[in-house]
Amino acid sequence: xxxxxxxxxxxxxxxxxxxxxxxxxxxxxxxxxxxxxxxxxxxxxxxxxxxxxxxxxxxxxxxxxxxxxxxxxxxxxxxxxxxxxxxxxxxxxxxxxxxxxxxxxxxxxxxxxxxxxxxxxxxxxxxxxxxxxxxxxxxxxxxxxxxxxxxxxxxxxxxxxxxxxxxxxxxxxxxxxxxxxxxxxxxxxxxxxxxxxxxxxxxxxxxxxxxxxxxxxxxxxxxxxxxxxxxxxxxxxxxxxxxxxxxxxxxxxxxxxxxxxxxxxxxx
Length: 268
Description:
By secondary structure, this protein is an alpha+beta fold.
């Protein structure tokens, strides 16, 4: 009889101990930490929105308070009137002067009280009807000839242009000889200078009447009634035609004499 033998387990096959070709392991670098900038930007935006909301709410509250208050009535603003500045009144230097009137030839002038109105040349003795008058400072012989103001009325048969131009030519062309100058200087005590035109003769108008004017510098004066010498000065001449008469106004060219001229007027 056969004896049953116990079943024997198959002998396990030993594992393959041959090395396996495993690829080399690559080391992965550590992950880069994520930046925090997006979080910072979001925080700033949130902060800005919050601040805007708070300011908007405050504005709304203030506006509600202002709207709830009653509007004050408009105030009347009264402006003070500007002070009225009075125009400066110029003092008339001739206000207290004397007035001379020539009733014969119809004119008048004003003059300082220190000046005297006298006859000039071949006048008839009465200054109110004299054909030629002169203003001078009485009591001072040195002031009789200069400065002075003279008015002479002429009735020459020539025309107005001729009498004016002849007088101008006489004053500017007639020259004293050296011996005459020397003699005059010894008698008068001052130097004698030849005449020359400072302002040549020009046709113009005076008191709305035809006129000729010129200014002569020198020592010889001719006022239409008399001729005399003075120390060198500027002398002004104005010829005026009125009707059949010729008026010659001549004067030393200074401030006082020009003020006297400003007062001259015809009375008829």
